Amino acid sequence: MEKLKKQKKGLPGPWGLSWSWILAGIIILLLILLLALWAAHVFPAQTLSAEEILKRVDEVVNAPKDREARIKVIIIDSKGKQEIREMISYQKGSDRRLVKFTSPAEHRGIGFLSLPNEVMYLYLPAYGRTRRIASHVKNTKFAGTDFTYEDMEAARYSEKWVGQWLREEADYYVIELKPKPETKTQYSRLVMWIRTENFYPAKIELYDRANRLAKLLTLNKMEKIGPYWTSRQMTMEDLKENRKTILELQEIKFDVGLGDELFTERFLMR
Amino acid sequence: MKFYEFIYRFRWLIVLGTFILTLMLVWPIRQLKINADLTSYLPKSDPAVRTLEYIADTYGGNFVAVIAIESDDIFKPYFLDSIRELTTKLQLLEGVNYVTSLTNVLDLKKSDEGLEIGKLISEEDFPLDESKASELRSYVLNKKRFRGRLVSADGRVTLVIVALRKDVDKNQIMKEIRKIVETSHLSGEVHLAGLPAQQSEISRFTLYDLKTLSPLVAIIIFLCLFLSFRSWRGVIIPLAAVALSTLWTLGFMGLTGVPLTIISVAIPVLLLAVGSAYSLHVLHRFDEAPEDQKKRALSHVSASVFLAAITTIAGFMSFVFGSYLSAIREFGVFASLGILFALILSVTFVPAFLFIINPKRLKEKKNSLENKKIPWLLRLEKGAFGFLRQGKITLFVFLSVIIVALSGIPFIERHAKMLDYFEASSEIRRSEIFLERKIGGSIPMNILVKGDIQEPAVLEEMKALEDFLDQDPLVHNPLSIADFLAEMNDLMGEGEKIPDSREKVSNLLFLLEGQEGLDQLLHPDKTEAVIQATIPSLDIEEMKKLVERIESWIKQRSFPSAQMIFSGSPQVYIHLDRSLVQSQIISLSLALILIYLCVLFLVRSPAGALLGMIPIIFTLILIFGFMGYAKIPLDIVTVLVGSVSIGIGIDYSLHWINRFRLEVRREAEKRVFSMTEKRNSSILPLDAQSFLSNSALIEAAERTLRSTGRAIFINMITVASGFLVLTFGNLIPLRRFGLLVAVTMLSSGLGTLTLLPAVVVKTKAKWIKMNKKQNKNSKSREIG
Would you say residue B331 has pLDDT above 70? Predict the structure, then answer.
């Protein structure tokens, strides 16, 4: 009688579970697998995560040990009026940079020095004096351009932003960057197009705090100089004010062995 | 006569065509815009307007709406947050040049961290914490550039300044700004001020007045007409004709894209009040005439209607040629057009319509006021007869009135202060006064500086002028690039003064470049800059003195290296005022000349025409004296009264003269007939006039009073009460206009009924003798 009853309940399986339960479990597992496969099909496999892409971008952009370049600054206002300036830029690593204007004559000698930990100095030759610029003016426009101090920073994106995969387009990865909680920025998010070929950004949409597309940065005229990829032309468009600034990099030299003494207030004043 | 044959034959077509035309013209009324921007009333070529618009175009200022928020919590984090939100939302509005508030204003300061050039509150600092917010409070209240400008000295009021593009529809944008303000959860009392706010309020009131007052005028006129004629037909037909002409006029304004102004808003009321008389005449004669003579009667009446309309149009046209202000010219054009429409409708549509309904019963006629023996009217008539008989006393009375009135004329004030257009209790006026108390005014004033702005000498001159402005009790918060440069110079360690070399200025400007707000002060070329300041609402005398003070100071200093051009609404108002007085003189003289010519055409005697103008000349003197004593200022609306009253008032004289001549002829005929017993000629021989004695003239004048006099009296009451409706309006100039025109009507009516007969009888004017045949000829010629 007892045996019969047990048999009615089904064959006893391992671990005291009935076979039918195990079977159900297998079926569920299979279904999950199927779902996963289907999902993988519908959302194509990502060989790289957004975070990884961002790290690669940082590596590529910051690959050179240092860089020296002449930069032509072309500012085009909403009425189409152009203004051209020239400066020399020295950069070492990602967090040291010195910029000196060379033209027009009335601006010659004006310089900016950025040091680690957001320390910034300004030099005005007419006063013969340097002044430290407070760090929190990063959203201030840099020298009448459409680049803010923040935009000019040679930042490591992955340090300040959290990347999120959006999609892949023809030759680009498109990822969205949201600020990390501790990051101080004027932007609510960025959308970045990254060249799949070399992980160099091609275009960045900059959204303001109200989440409106405020500015657009495009990096054109890609060139490989030595082992490094670089963009020779950066255009920042202010979509609200309908003006833009083009930075044209000339005479780019990488790994010239810029000394630390270059990135001091003393050199800024020279 | 042929004309009315034509109308009779095509009566259906005319009525139908009128309605189709009306339907076509009603449509564009929807496109009608309102323009309350006083600066736009001056011609575009006016130098004051040109500089004003140049500054608006180049520096974004001059058309500035001010949102003032009163609260105890101005420096509380949540409050600042909502200000920031408001600022951002307003910046997004189409048509906004820039917005300045605590949350985005440019600031320069030195902190432990170093030099800071940027916004007063940095974007990243939001949301502010409590301690930072209270720090901000003491910082802002201690900084001259913010205290009394963006925040009141007591720290309880803060401003959000919204500069608008000059070409933007101010009403629309103010509506949007209001909506944003209402939905912005600001804890505190919000006041909207500034010229654009005032303008949009004027527009709103204008539209409201147009919508409410026009029907009210129609009702009043309806009542007056009904009481006078006791006939539905006698009320509805004139009203319909006038309503149609009003619609046509508004339709034409819509079609031509001419906006309504606070002046032209009077047109519908004007047409209702004046135009109804034309079709009334036609209707009257139509009813009077026997069945077979209706067309003949009509052609007779159209002559006098034609003349009445022409004189009125002449009054309005005087503005077209005599006024510097475009709004007044437009008023002249469209008021004339409206009168022309009323005329055309009363000689085409009204008779055609009458032919169609062709009433057989005319018994209502007996009920009409003109033929009734109403005790108070009879008593009035007796009074008028008294005036007539006691010619000397009449002349004496009127002469003394004229002397009293004349002595009032010098007291006429002149105003173009927009704030005075609103009632003292109106929200906009209270807001403005509140703002004046707290901040010192909301109206922008600019001084355009031309010169090499990077040159320290020029900057020193700018600073000197600013210091001078700062000491003026009426001018508040002067600000220019020189202030920023002095501050920057301080930050660079050389003290708060203008940098001592051109290179330094150039260096500093390089740093400031691209900062929000810089382009409001400095031209990108650096060859031009503005000094901004604000002033309260001032009346014209205060403005004149202010402009004089500033301009003479500028002249006296004779800046060697820069040219200073004072610009702003004071200039525009002064030009407006000057042109008002000019307009008044020119258009009045023009109106008088044009109407003199019209009367001359009728009476064919230069002296007679002059006599016919006695009532309106009396009226003019009376009205200006009244303005002087009643403290009604000459403004852009009351400036119209003179010519309008001439144009309308002359009708009474013309009617009276016409009838009087008829009565004289009859009287003469009667007397000649009784003497010779066999004269039966329609042509009165000239020598027959010599038979006319004083008593005969008085008899004729009395009969004129009894017939035409009554009609004049009724019309006078009707039109005056129609215009008095305007005194219920929201806008003060329109109220004054209504009151003044009502007074005008009464004065020219009464002048015609008392003074004119007395003078005519006293002088035994020769022109009365004019041949009847001659008169007839002139009439048939008019009909064409």
Answer: yes
